[in-house]
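User: These chains co-purify. Model them together.
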Amino acid sequence: MTLTELQKKFVLHWGEMGARWGINRTVAQIHAVLYLSPRPLDAEEIADTLGVARSNVSNSLKELQGYNIVRIVHTLGERRDQFECMKDVWEMFRLILDERKRRECDPTLQMLRETVSEAEKPSTGDAYTAARLNEMLQFFELMSNWYDQTRKMSTPAVIRLCKLGDKVAKMLGIAG
Amino acid sequence: MTLTELQKKFVLHWGEMGARWGINRTVAQIHAVLYLSPRPLDAEEIADTLGVARSNVSNSLKELQGYNIVRIVHTLGERRDQFECMKDVWEMFRLILDERKRRECDPTLQMLRETVSEAEKPSTGDAYTAARLNEMLQFFELMSNWYDQTRKMSTPAVIRLCKLGDKVAKMLGIAG
DNA sequence: CGAATATTTCTGTTTATACAGAAATATCTG
DNA sequence: CAGATATTTCTGTATAAACAGAAATATTCG
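Assistant: Joint model of the four components:
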């Protein structure tokens, strides 16, 4: 597989953006290649396409599988593992968010619950810290609950809601 | 300023989480210290508290000011710049999102518009790539518009909406 | 205006991550 | 089960980011 200039532009940008959000550049590039590929690719093809080592591809694919957005598929008469990427963009981002919430937000929630609980003991005697930590905890709790609830909605329903934008507030009579 | 064990726990966690989201560890730690501090701190105090170099603090504070969540304040009879952090958690995250959208999402939107426009030329003749890029573009356009619209809402209104969670869809009769 | 203090910029070093290539392991096929 | 092929793990190296400390610049005050 050889990338066209157009595809290269997307792949490089995607890698760059991934890096800014704490996702390894190569991981993001591989994701981009698989996203654009009309057929599953094997690891060696990916390594050749991007000019990176086979082992690097192997580890990066593991990472992408950890996000549940890439999976192994097998073709009859082909011994190699092949990889395909989820093509539904909405579903893809929802899966990525699921995982990042699990890895980063949930532990933060736990930490905040612990520190708030400790800070609010009268013996600690640091009301200001307690108040700040508690406000942060409230924020994370609310966001977490909001995410969990909207997560249960179907993608088309979420899209419809997003399209309404701030009209939602007006329709529900929630003052700006 | 010396951090209590409790404060250390928060500061270290915050630094770690920042790093996972592409924000420099020290930048996030300084943010955490300022967030917990009931009074503005000067750069040297911060450097001492965290045990990092003065220059490092200087650059990190610039970064935080770039996010508009930290600002310089002056006290009468004090020559040094002092820094204070926004304490309203909601407003803080909204400002961070503003900036990340500007730095990362907007350029991605631009890239996608360019590549889609190019990919859809008949001469390019790669219908599959064009379709994938276009779907990604639709997603980013929708999210971007949604963000811009909800951004105009007041924080209390956003909070009320979040608290409703998936009830919003039910109230509006949007099927799950 | 000169001394003192504060801040930023610059430069070299350190450190953590990303990575390649080799080695080891696993899997398939005849 | 032996040979071939595919995959993963391991280890050392390269690279880019983070950082400290020094130097340069700016600001304040007597």
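Helices of chain A lie at 5-20, 25-36, 43-50, 54-66, 89-119, 127-151, 155-164, 167-171.
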